[in-house]
Amino acid sequence: MAVSARWCIPVVEFCDTVRNKCTDTRRCSVIPEQYRNQQVGVTGYRVLNLDLDGVCADYSGALRDYLVDHGVMNPDAHPEENNYALYENAGWPFRTREEYLAAHKAAEQEHLYATMRPIEGAPEALRFLAENHVYIRIVTHRLFVSGQHQMAVSDTAQWLDTWGIPYMSLCFTGLKDSMQATVHIDDSPSNITALRKVGQHVVVFDQPYNQNFVGPRIHDWSRSATQQLLDWFEQWPETGEGEQ
Length: 244
Ligand SMILES: [Mg+2]
What we know:
This is 5'-nucleotidase. The protein has three domains: 1-40, no CATH class; 45-57 and 118-234, HAD superfamily/HAD-like (Rossmann fold); 59-115. The chain has nine helices and six strands. The protein has helices at residues 9-18, 25-28, 59-69, 97-109, 112-115, 122-131, 149-162, 189-197, 223-234; strands at 46-50, 134-140, 169-172, 183-186, 202-205, 217-218. It has a six-stranded parallel β-sheet with strand order 3-2-1-4-5-6, sandwiched between helices. It is globular and about 55 Å long. Residues 51, 53-55, 186-188 line the site of magnesium ion.
């Protein structure tokens, strides 16, 4: 596992070099002893594989805003949210996957990923998790449209910086079940299913289209939900528990 020079090493060096003279106990206790060696892999560190769209970023809201601004969607229209695939919900100005991809690609060209709103409370909650020694690894499937990857990656990084969201890794993949973590957070029914099938611990981020899943779930990024996440890092609930 790579060690971030920006986040980890300066803090460790600070504590190692001035520990005996330091009076700032808050800073000296930033990384507890058991988390100082980040070479221990996912079994020795709190690793969070974190989805973006529908969990941290309001993708559907941003796409809707784009379509309204371009006159192809009624500003009073509020599409249904019963299905994960947007084109399967009534209220959108597209009916097929191909039409949806065309709309997405056009919006992406106008920096959809750099300008969308975060889901309320997400930046603050993620900073709280990072302060509590959670290794945040962004895992997103945003490269599902070819030809615009440079923009998708750059805009994603810009958006994360704009909102002050801390992270140690930024991974672009749709094969989420290929990446281990202590805890995953996702909203996609197919991802939740695939990850649980290989024994990974998934917290469902509540959305109308994933109501049929049992098990650990958070409804928002409130402090109580974030604290619950921290508790699950230490003690994963037994099967059937954790429904919030
Ligand atoms: Mg998602």
